[in-house]
Write a structure and sequence with these properties.
Helix content: 40-55%
Structural class: mainly alpha
Length: 96
């Protein structure tokens, strides 16, 4: 094979292939980060409906992981948050 290449081109070095990089769906990471911070309380399915453009499930999941978002949601408020909501001062355990 290298003999034929030497005869045809005068050079026998290996061909340099073009790098086939991935076609990234998310090009503006700052925009995606701002979007995720704004809509972080929603599920990924709801976020997909709001994102302008198409993102696959796996792409969206990897992108959120890349910027540090997790799928964990806290369903209820902490005791301190509930007390703040109802307007009570922070109570000590001795108050009960």
């Amino acid at each position: 094979m290298w003999l034929r290449r030497k005869a045809e081109t005068g050079d026998f070095r290996a061909k340099v292939r073009e790098h086939r990089g991935k076609n990234n769906k998310i090009t503006d990471w700052e925009k995606f980060r701002a979007f995720a911070e704004t809509h972080g309380d929603q599920t990924q399915v709801e976020m997909a409906e709001l994102w302008d453009g198409e993102l696959g499930d796996r792409t969206r999941s990897r992108a959120l992981k890349k910027i540090g978002f997790t799928g964990k949601k806290r369903l209820t408020a902490t005791v301190e948050e509930w007390l703040a909501i109802i307007g009570w001062e922070k109570l000590s355990r001795q108050s009960f």
